[in-house]
Amino acid sequence: MQPGGLDKARIRAERLALRDTLSVEERREKSLAIAQNGTHALKRFSGKTVSGFLPIRSEADLRPLMDMLRDGGMRLCLPVILDRETIVFREFARDTQLVKTGFGTSGPDEDAAVLEPDILLVPLSAFDGTGQRIGYGAGHYDRAIARLHAKGLNPLLIGIAFDCQEVPSVPAQEHDVALDAVLTESGMRYFNGRTAE
């Protein structure tokens, strides 16, 4: 395990356990607040492609936000895990049929167009006030972000979390890519000046 890996594993377990204590009703209310905050913050990106995700376990439910973004003129896609190493982003139109896509998730089938997102809504287990995040440990998003960067693309990276998932500090490694912003029930918080795009 890499240096900091044990700390990340402990922080991940603690924050996910805390998130799990939120009731279904609390998660629903907080998810609706995330939708309102996200719609307001992202309305200037009309016409862009946004990758969301469907909730697993006790994650925030982004379906209300994705509906609002679609209504606001954005093209949506969802991550689909092809194998242990690869995520692709398939178009999520209003009438898209969803299938099981691995890691407990659902997404569009292979008939859906593969898109390159301008904005990536990123699930996480913990985050800090500098935009560092801890994922779920499989590295899917890290590899997907690296693949987009290798193509010369620089999507806006927005972590999605509840306030209870914030920690004082995430032990970041040199290869870790910081988020540009985090969206929670309290609002959108930016970290590195990409708000003017």
Report on this structure:
The chain has 197 residues and is α/β, with parallel strands linked by helices. The protein has one domain (5-196): Rossmann fold, CATH 3.40.50. The protein contains 4 helices and 11 strands; from the N terminus they run ααβαβββββββαβββ. The strands form 3 sheets. Strands 3-2-1-6-9-10-11 form a 7-stranded mixed β-sheet. The protein has a two-stranded antiparallel ribbon with strand order 4-5. It has a two-stranded antiparallel ribbon with strand order 7-8.
Break the fold down into its secondary structure elements and pairings.
Blueprint: H1 5-20, H2 24-42, E1 49-51, H3 63-71, E2 75-81, E3 87-91, E4 98-102, E5 105-108, E6 119-123, E7 126-127, E8 133-134, H4 140-150, E9 156-160, E10 181-184, E11 187-190
Parallel strand pairs: 1-2, 1-6, 6-9, 9-10
Antiparallel strand pairs: 2-3, 4-5, 7-8, 10-11
Helix pairs in contact: 2-3
What portion of the residues fall into strands of 2 or more residues?
Answer: 15-25%
Unreliable residue runs: none
Mean pLDDT: 91
What are the secondary-structure elements, in order, as H or E? HHEHEEEEEEEHEEE
Molecular shape: globular
Taking the sheet with the most strands, its summary is: 7 strands, mixed
Question: In brief, what are we looking at here?
Answer:
The protein has helices at 5-20, 24-42, 63-71, 140-150, and strands spanning 49-51, 75-81, 87-91, 98-102, 105-108, 119-123, 126-127, 133-134, 156-160, 181-184, 187-190. The protein is α/β, with parallel strands linked by helices.
